[in-house]
Amino acid sequence: MTLLDGKQTAETIKEEIAAEVEAIKAAHGKVPHLAAILVGNDGGSQTYVNNKVLACERVGFDSTLIRMEDSITEEELLEKIEELNNDANVDGFIVQLPLPKHIDTEKVLEAVNPSKDVDGFHPTNVGRMVAGLKAFLPATPYGILQLLERYQIETKGKHCVVIGRSNIVGSPMSILMAKNAYPGNCTVTICHRHTENLAQFTKQADILIAAVGIPEFVKADMVKDGAVVIDVGTTRVPDTTRKAGYKLKGDVLFDEVAPKCSFITPVPGGVGPLTIAMLLKNTLSAAKKEVYHN
Ligand SMILES: NC(=O)C1=CN([C@@H]2O[C@H](COP(=O)(O)OP(=O)(O)OC[C@H]3O[C@@H](n4cnc5c(N)ncnc54)[C@H](OP(=O)(O)O)[C@@H]3O)[C@@H](O)[C@H]2O)C=CC1
Ligand SMILES: Nc1nc(=O)c2c([nH]1)NC[C@@H]1CN(c3ccc(C(=O)N[C@@H](CCC(=O)O)C(=O)O)cc3)C=[N+]21
């Protein structure tokens, strides 16, 4: 069993980005700039956004964190987005999810100019991805592709089973794994809440990607010997013995499943750090106008 070290892979990617930033700075005197909007003070969201800002500093980007109260109106948020759309100084920005219930997430994501949508959540980027055009790829699926590629894992002709069909992870992941590309060329099965006899499908997976959000959901008897297992789940489970007050748990019962695998990602230190690295990569692409040439 080989551990897919997301933390180390993310470090490597960030070093590659930092080197490019140096070159851009020398040539243009300007560095890529990522902005993030955080609405409210959900603990997990704060951690992720802070990690993103710290990662920007690490690679030499400019970053701006915009905090808004839970109680803001949808209009106020849309105004802020318009401001960032029009700010020539900002190359890309994200609106951290989830948003408070009184705000229409779809409307908010559609308000982001696709050329600055480094999360890849705007329908234009989703459509372009599906059509195989240049697009900002959502950071988590993009990070998983990087992991498969950098560990040179064979994907062609393999059966990839994805558990979860969310717009930010499961759906784009399944689309990308079925593409005529490397990593890709898989036969893909998408499972969700209404899948009957889930284990019957997961047991057939050469590559199993779990993006469910239920801690330790995938047990050893659901996994084929020699499978590649990618654990996207990151659920905070209360743990009073820890300083942070919680423990991060993946969707896979790691101790039981890992011995059966050819490759597996840990949680933490697996997919999460790569998500952040690929957000930076998208921001670099935005600054270089590699996707949209406006
Ligand atoms: N490491 C990282 O970088 C990231 C981690 N995450 C983590 O990944 C997990 C998933 O995130 P996200 O996709 O946003 O979550 P969502 O809650 O949006 O989606 C969860 C998916 O799991 C499916 N599901 C729920 N219960 C079952 C079940 N019993 N059997 C089969 N399928 C089920 C749901 O099905 P249905 O559609 O039918 O409701 C849904 O499609 C979370 O733990 C999240 O924190 C998310 C983003 C990035
Ligand atoms: N607009 C938007 N874009 C996102 O990309 C987005 C989002 N909203 N909402 C929430 C999810 C979740 N997500 C994670 C990012 C990093 C880690 C990460 O770095 N995890 C570390 C541990 C961090 C910790 O200690 O909690 C690890 O797995 O090693 C996890 C999860 C991005 N998301």
Automatic annotation (TrEMBL):
Q: Which residues bind NADP(+)?
A: 164-166, 234
**Does the keyword section mention NADP?**
yes
Q: In which pathway does it act?
A: One-carbon metabolism; tetrahydrofolate interconversion
Q: Name one GO molecular function term.
A: methenyltetrahydrofolate cyclohydrolase activity
List the PROSITE patterns: THF_DHG_CYH_1
Keyword Chaperone present in the record's keywords: the answer is no
Specify the superkingdom: Bacteria
Q: Report the residue ranges that make up the Tetrahydrofolate dehydrogenase/cyclohydrolase catalytic domain in this protein.
A: 4-119
Q: Which residues form the Tetrahydrofolate dehydrogenase/cyclohydrolase NAD(P)-binding domain?
A: 138-290
Give the residues annotated as coiled coil: none
Q: Which Gene3D superfamilies match?
A: Leucine Dehydrogenase, chain A, domain 1 (3.40.50.10860), NAD(P)-binding Rossmann-like Domain (3.40.50.720)
**What's its EC?**
1.5.1.5, 3.5.4.9
What transmembrane ranges does the database entry give? none
SUPFAM superfamilies from the xrefs? Aminoacid dehydrogenase-like, N-terminal domain, NAD(P)-binding Rossmann-fold domains
Protein family (similarity comment): Belongs to the tetrahydrofolate dehydrogenase/cyclohydrolase family.
- Which function does this protein serve? Catalyzes the oxidation of 5,10-methylenetetrahydrofolate to 5,10-methenyltetrahydrofolate and then the hydrolysis of 5,10-methenyltetrahydrofolate to 10-formyltetrahydrofolate.
Quaternary arrangement and interactors, per the entry? Homodimer.
Q: What is this protein's record name?
A: Bifunctional protein FolD
Q: Gene name on record?
A: folD
